[in-house]
Amino acid sequence: MLDDRMAKEDIENVTVKHLTAGEDEPTNDVSNDEKDKKKQMKFSTDVEIKANCITFLLAGYETTSTALAFTTHILVNRQDVQEKIREEINDVIGQDGVLDYNTVNKLQYLDQVFSESLRLYPPIITFINRVSDEDYQLGDFKIPKDTTIQVPVWYFHHDPEIWSEPYEFKPERFLPENKKDIHPMAYQAFGSGPRNCVGMRMGQLHAKLALARILRGYKVVPSEKTEIGQIQYKIKFLTIGPVHGIHVKVVPV
After folding, report:
1. Rounded mean pLDDT of 55-74?
2. Dihedral angle computed from the Cα positions of residues 184, 188, 193 and 199, in that order, rounded to the nearest 10 degrees
3. Side-chain-facing half-sphere of 7: CA atoms under 13 Å
4. C-alpha angle 217/220/226, rounded to 5°?
5. pLDDT in tens, 153-166
6. In the chain, which residue ranges form alpha helices assigned H by DSSP?
7. Per residue in 12-49, pLDDT tens?
């Protein structure tokens, strides 16, 4: 954010793709040649930087912790999945390697597990809203211009017409060769389009880094209070969360 800048004459050419936060590396369209140096640049103001920082902190704290909680519930119930992640970590970084941005992004199976966890238990289920900018006929139903539309994330993620056995944990859904067949609007863990979650990359990195660091050295096993199988969850206005919390034991590998 501190380095955010764009030539004023280039702002008019910004597309939806530029505004959409994606999983790929962010690109900087501003080059360093002499022509660009002569352009009049627009920088983010201090107020805009502060506002974005506050948004990142407020929106990313509970959502990330909730996602980690549900993923931990899955892992404690699926020791085979947990062990497979641990093997992948050791294969990628070895015993003395460093877990950082680059190495975490190489953990393909961990990404599949986390993505499937977000599909089964999306932390935020009611905040994705859009406003139609024109009248639209959707089958027999007409959506008038300026209508606010709320995207039913939970139902999208559990629709049997979109996902086979939608309530079953299947991380193979997010294999690269399978992921490309998922309809872009069917998976709404971070929203879609130019108003999707601006903290998507940061949230994924934090969560996967935390999981990798824990699972590299420790095994998560059931405790006396661990819920085995289906977990009870509750809706808290915008988010969902486990009714009884997540109770596990952590033992060294």
Report:
1. 85
2. -130
3. 13
4. 165
5. 889 999 999 999 99
6. 16-19, 34-37, 46-77, 79-93, 101-104, 108-120, 153-157, 176-179, 200-217
7. 565 656 556 666 554 445 444 445 555 555 667 788 88
Q: What is the pTM of this model?
A: 0.79
What lies within 8 Å, CB to CB, of 205 at 6+ separation is 101, 104
Say how far apart CA 188 and CA 128 lie, in whole Å: 9
Relative to beta strand 218-222, strand 248-252 is antiparallel
Closest C-alpha among 240, 5, 22 to residue 118: 240
Looking at residue 142, its pLDDT comes to: 93
Task: Tell me how far CA of residue 230 lies from CA of 77, 227, 243, in angstroms.
Answer: 9, 7, 12
> Pairing mode, if any, of strands 148-150 and 218-222?
unpaired
**Strand 5-7 relative to strand 41-43: parallel, antiparallel, unpaired?**
antiparallel
d(CA 177, CA 19): 26
Going by pLDDT thresholds of 50, 70 and 90, the confidence category of residue 101 is confident
